[in-house]
Amino acid sequence: MATDTAATTGTASPDEPLYVNGQTELDDVTSDNDVVLADFYADWCGPCQMLEPVVETLAEQTDAAVAKIDVDENQALASAYGVRGVPTLVLFADGEQVEEVVGLQDEDALKDLIESYTE
């Protein structure tokens, strides 16, 4: 099995997006990681598809965990966070929501936003 990297330290963030289904899973991700970028998306959303490689890069190159949340499958969760349009990115630091950004975003701007909470 190639899952050895997950067992190394509790401080390392996943190198790829985590697909989250429901509040409990999101709570687990935000409590297990210092900084989490939650990407509320929909498969039918063009800007969401354009943002996909950006969030994959952020998961790989930053100290933040990236959670992907399909709003069609998680309408209650999207509603709980006030998501009215997709893509919506919600940043959590130390388990608390600290930022929300709506719409297609530049990779560098998102990286700067994440780094402002990870340094």
From TrEMBL:
CDD domains: TRX_family (cd02947). Residues 1-20 are annotated as: Disordered. Residues 1-12 have a biased composition (Low complexity). InterPro entries: Thioredoxin, Thioredoxin-like_sf, Thioredoxin_CS, Thioredoxin_domain. Transmembrane segments: none annotated. Residues 7-119 form the Thioredoxin domain. It comes from the Archaea. One of its GO terms (molecular function) is protein-disulfide reductase activity. The keyword Chloroplast does not apply. The keyword Transport applies. GO terms for cellular component: cytoplasm. Keywords: Disulfide bond, Electron transport, Plasmid, Redox-active center, Transport. This is Thioredoxin. It comes from Halobacterium salinarum (strain ATCC 700922 / JCM 11081 / NRC-1) (Halobacterium halobium). The gene is trxA1_1.
